[in-house]
Design goal:
This protein has helices at about 5-10, 25-85, 100-110, 135-140, 145-150, 200-205, 285, 290-335, 350-430, 440-470, 480-495, 515-530, 590-600, and strands spanning about 115-125, 125-135, 160-165, 175-180, 190-195, 215-220, 225-230, 265-270, 275-285, 475-480, 500-505, 510-515, 540-545, 550-555, 605-610, 615-620. By secondary structure, the chain is of the alpha+beta class. The chain has three domains: about 50-285, Beta-Lactamase; about 340-470; about 470-620, Histidine kinase-like ATPase, C-terminal domain (Heat Shock Protein 90). The strands form four sheets. It has a five-stranded antiparallel beta sheet, with helices on both faces. A five-stranded mixed beta sheet has the order 11-13-14-16-15. The two termini are about 40 Å apart.
């Protein structure tokens, strides 16, 4: 097994595709489905279109048959009207001839079709002239209905078909029809017929209609006059499904059909000689059986083709994914640390190339891990030596810090005491024996006292430089503007004879050690204050700008300035660019500034020209902790 820290360097995160994660098998299935679905859809849509067209043709055939049946009804009514006209020679408008009239009507009734239940004759001015009826129709037809029909008949030579009469719930409706005649003597006669539409040949003869087809006659005012359904014996089944002619659009009158409420093909036509509508309807399953058979057949064929394509896609996917699954398992074993694992996949094409590349990569990884093991052993040995050297250097650094602490203590106490005594003795000598000394002796004593004071200041600066190098940084938010205002106030109090115009920008907030940043501003502002001495209008400015993406703070003055070529000497301890007799100082302040800025992770630099003032820049990055 390989150490986990080595194997972890060899692993790479798997690339994750957005959305669904589909394998090769699923993608082949999807490809087959996407490829064949449009073909099957086109096939099914074509069959559906043919089914709709067949339905339209069936509706047109039903309408055409209804028109034929309506024409047959008109022909029957015309034949009946012709027979009525033949009554003129044998009937007279004279009630005295009632017996003769009834005999003539009876003979005519026997000659009329069975659709005529009875016949009666009326004179316009003298009432009934005679009647003849089949069975008991006379008792069922009210005299008032006959008289109303006569009253509605005018003298024009045409057959008037009246409203249907319903004598019993189980008996079809009877319709009264009348025709005005003129006898041989010129008298006006009205002949009234009792028609049974359900017995008319267009309803009784349903030969040639598909099984279950219905022919109905309906009065336009609503009542059903007759209906006949084609049985097995009379059904022909050759009418519907014809491809001849153009199918007209279906009409809303089909909803008035008296047929059943199931899915049916309906056609209708209006009878010209009567206020009737003839309906012909047939079951849709019978009329559309051929089209529906084609639709189901093609749907089954399309489904079988799709199933076979999916099966073929599955077999191809299995052949492709089997070696890929083996490669995946080998890769997982290799990633788990079994570096001697090699794949056993033997295939042609791209998968064979992939298997060969896998084995080559596995061999290279095994060699690399061997090298990493050797390197790891060497690094472990080096780390042991490095830890030992770090411990030694730490001990040396601790010793140096202890020596530095001792040196600081010695400087602070052992050197200050002689200097303090020398200064005190020189002052006492000048006070007690000043009268005995000449001017040169007094000057020497004053120089001795000034030298002691200068030495004391130098010791203070050195101690401060040592302190800023070792002090722990306490980070917090510091407003440099407020700190600068306090330093400027102290400088004005100490140097009232040197007024300086000071400008401090707003918002100079940084994250750092407040006490050390105060030391930075004290040194920079006091230098600016010092080197503007002698200027007619001394000015000092504190602000900030953005340089290369970092915020840089600056202290600018209009003092004596310095040569830019010597700027690198400013931040070295005890280095001075001006004579100490002109500008006092120890040469340690700017070194202290650089040490503090560097501890905050920033940088400091200066820009100047002689006589043009100087600008000191420094940066204090936010979020930088103590190193």
């Amino acid at each position: 097994m390989v150490p986990l820290e080595i194997v972890g360097q060899l692993r790479r995160p798997a690339h994750r595709w957005p959305g669904w994660r589909l394998g090769i098998r699923a993608r082949l299935f999807l490809l087959a489905l996407v490829t064949l679905s449009p073909l099957v859809g086109v096939l099914v849509f074509q069959d559906y279109y043919h089914l709709v067209a067949a339905r339209q043709r069936a509706d047109a055939d039903a309408t055409r048959l209804a028109q034929i049946k309506a024409g047959d009804v008109d022909q029957n009514l015309l034949a009946i009207e012709t027979q009525l006209v033949a009554l003129r020679p044998v009937i007279a408008a004279d009630r005295a001839l009632l017996t003769a009239n009834e005999a003539a009507l009876a003979r005519l009734l026997r000659e009329l079709p069975v659709a005529i239940d009875g016949i009666a004759a009326f004179a316009f001015d003298s009432g009934a002239l005679g009647a003849a009826w089949r069975d008991d129709v006379a008792a069922q037809v009210p005299l008032g209905a006959l008289e109303d029909q006569v009253a509605d008949t005018d003298a024009r030579p045409r057959l008037l078909v009246g409203q249907p009469l319903q004598f019993a719930a189980d008996r079809p409706s009877t319709v009264l029809a009348s025709r005005a005649l003129t006898d041989q003597a010129g008298g006006q006669i009205v002949v009234v017929l009792a028609l049974r539409p359900d017995r008319m040949p267009p309803l009784t003869d349903v030969r040639g209609l598909p099984r279950g087809s219905t022919v109905s006659i309906v009065d336009v005012r609503g009542p059903l006059l007759g209906r006949t359904t084609a049985s097995e014996a009379s059904a022909g089944g050759v009418l519907f499904g014809s491809t001849s002619g153009q199918a007209p659009a279906r009409t809303d009158l089909a909803r008035r059909s008296p047929a059943a409420t199931d899915d049916r093909v309906v056609g209708h036509a209006v009878v010209e000689r009567a206020p009737w509508v003839v309906y012909v309807d047939a079951p849709a399953e019978v009329a559309l059986i051929a089209a529906r058979t084609d639709f189901v057949r093609d749907l089954v064929i399309g489904s079988v083709m799709l199933a076979l394509a999916l099966l073929l896609a599955w077999l191809i996917a299995e052949r492709i994914t089997a070696p890929i699954r083996q490669l995946t398992a080998d890769a997982a074993a290799l990633g788990a640390g079994h570096l001697s694992r090699r794949t056993t996949v033997r295939a042609g094409g791209e998968i064979g190339v992939l298997a060969g590349a896998f084995n080559e990569t596995a061999g290279a990884i095994e060699q690399l891990v061997g090298s990493l093991r050797t390197t790891q052993s060497e690094l472990r040995s080096l780390n042991l030596h490095l830890e030992q050297r770090v411990r030694e250097r730490t001990a040396q650094l601790a010793a140096l810090n202890a020596e530095l602490e001792a040196f600081s203590f010695a400087v602070s106490h052992d050197l200050r005491a002689p200097l303090r005594r020398m200064d005190q003795f020189s002052v006492a000598l000048l006070e007690d024996y000043g009268g005995r000394l000449d001017d040169e002796g007094k000057l020497m004593l004053k120089r001795l006292s000034a030298g002691c004071e200068q030495m004391s200041l130098l010791i203070d600066d050195l101690l401060r430089l040592s302190f800023v190098s070792r002090a722990e940084l306490l980070y917090r938010s510091v407003d440099l503007g407020e700190v600068a205002a306090e330093v400027v106030a102290e400088l004005r109090r100490v140097n009232p004879e040197h007024p300086v115009a000071v400008s401090i920008a707003d918002g100079l907030v940084v994250h750092g050690d407040a006490s050390l940043l105060r030391v930075v501003l004290e040194n920079l502002l006091s230098n600016a204050w010092k080197f503007t001495r002698g200027q007619p209008e001394p000015r000092v400015e504190l602000g900030a700008v953005t340089l290369d993406g970092d915020r840089a703070f600056y202290v600018r003055d209009n003092g004596v300035g310095f040569e830019q070529a010597k700027a690198d000497r400013l931040f070295r301890a005890f280095q001075r660019l001006h004579d100490a007799r002109d500008f006092e100082g120890t040469g340690v302040g700017l070194a202290t500034v650089q040490r503090i800025v560097h501890r905050h992770g920033g940088r400091v630099w200066a820009e100047s020209n002689p006589g043009s003032g100087a600008t000191f820049w420094f940066t204090v990055p936010d979020g930088i902790g103590e190193e």
